[in-house]
Design a protein that fits this description.
It is built from 4 helices and 3 strands. It is α+β, with helices and mostly antiparallel strands. The chain has one domain (24-113): Arc Repressor Mutant, subunit A (Orthogonal Bundle).
Length: 114
């Protein structure tokens, strides 16, 4: 079954929004090599962020096991001293219905690594 696209009022048909988050990585190591530098750069920026914000802004691929690997990534970054927890926020992920998620902020180690 194919989805139909509603044309705009001027008659044009908008291109469907396709992000890299819709693609899924084949294996964990390849995915980790892709996302690690992006999250180090986000941590070095000094801003508070959620995991989804960074993944969406940078159009990152989903990991092979999204339920476990996003959290594992943030645990690795925290264990390596690149990020620390700062609190909670409502996610802007479309499928999560504004549920609470952890917020993160980079450390001095992240700023040095960048």
């Amino acid at each position: 079954m194919t989805a139909t696209v509603q044309p705009a009022l001027d008659g044009s048909v908008p291109a469907p929004r396709q992000t890299k988050t819709e693609r899924q990585a084949e294996d964990y190591e390849t995915w980790l090599a892709e996302v690690w530098p992006v999250f180090i750069a986000a941590a070095a920026s000094g801003r508070t962020f959620t995991t989804y914000e960074i993944a969406d802004e940078n159009r990152l691929a989903a990991p092979p096991n999204p339920q476990a690997h996003w959290g594992r990534l943030m645990t690795l970054l925290k264990d390596e001293g690149y990020v620390r927890t700062t609190g909670w926020a409502c996610t802007n992920r479309p499928t999560a219905h504004h549920s609470g998620v952890r917020t993160w902020k980079g450390t001095a180690a992240a700023r040095r690594a960048a």
